[in-house]
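Side project, low priority. Logging it here so it doesn't get lost.
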Amino acid sequence: MRKIFVAAAAGIMAMGLAAVPAQAATGARETTTATTKNFTIWSPLKEGYLKGKLYARYGHMYFTGVVVDTTDGPRDYTFAEVRYVDRNNHPNLKRSRNITSAEYRFKPILWQENFEARVCEGNPSEDECGPWVNLF
């Protein structure tokens, strides 16, 4: 009986030691430093900007950012547009809302490739946009 117990204990310990390297490898992948790219894009007349961040987390690429309008004019506004390809290979275009003397925060966007952004400014009669900036 004692031999069976010792054999069972040795088998359990061997399984536990075999599981440790697998857990260590998984932990190492999760703790690697993430790729991050911070950027700022100004509107054509420097009346507003997009301050954003592209980063990798758990094997996926994300974008988050803030659009800021720096003028005090009640009829002037700033907005930003981002276009990208998502993980289903669908092209997308997201536009922030028009802001006046405030800021707009983009919710995190999951993307896969071809990330571009531009900042626009305007008034109710016309918009002026800067060029598309290829960020990744």
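Brief comment: Residues 1-33 have pLDDT under 50 and may be disordered.
Revisit when time allows.
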